[in-house]
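Action item from last meeting closed. Structure (164 res):
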């Protein structure tokens, strides 16, 4: 046994405390809590069962009332859950509509940008070509002006980007 090494980390800090023997009381809540009519019927069935048609009939009536009350509570909870989910879905729908409108506007603006870009590139190239022809035909001032405008339009068309 002397060969067994001591572990570096035993996994305990040495500050553990023993459990207490004290029993914590549990609060008992009646299953009929919040169901006053079911409580009243059950109380009547327990104390005045003869006026309700006998012990068996009173028990059945009380059990039926309790079951219907539980069903009512369950249906109310289901309704609350459904209303909560409906509000969540309505919020999600609103957000989706907003996103859709934003994306739709982006698509329209991309198309407008493409048209501007193509118009500038085509016009710039055309003016550049006409300017070169004017410069060859001894109208150098007009030709250089058209070339400058053409180059300016081509650069402007490139500045519109790819539409992405």
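Sequence:
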């Amino acid at each position: 046994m002397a060969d067994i090494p001591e572990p570096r980390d035993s996994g305990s800090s040495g500050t553990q405390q023993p459990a207490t023997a004290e029993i914590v009381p549990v609060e008992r809540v009646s299953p009929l809590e919040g169901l006053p009519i079911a409580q009243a019927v059950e109380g009547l069935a327990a104390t005045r069962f003869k006026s309700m048609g006998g012990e068996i009939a009173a028990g059945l009536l009380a059990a039926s009332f309790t079951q219907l009350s539980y069903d009512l509570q369950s249906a109310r909870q289901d309704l609350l859950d459904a209303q909560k989910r409906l509000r969540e879905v309505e919020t999600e729908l609103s957000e989706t509509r907003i996103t859709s409108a934003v994306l739709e506007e982006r698509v329209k603006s991309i198309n407008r940008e493409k048209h501007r870009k193509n118009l500038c590139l085509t016009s710039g190239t055309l003016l550049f070509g006409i300017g070169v022809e004017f410069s060859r035909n001894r109208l150098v001032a007009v030709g250089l002006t058209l070339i400058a405008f053409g180059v300016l339009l081509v650069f402007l068309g490139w500045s519109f980007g790819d539409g992405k």
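Note appended to the action item: The chain has a mean pLDDT of 79.
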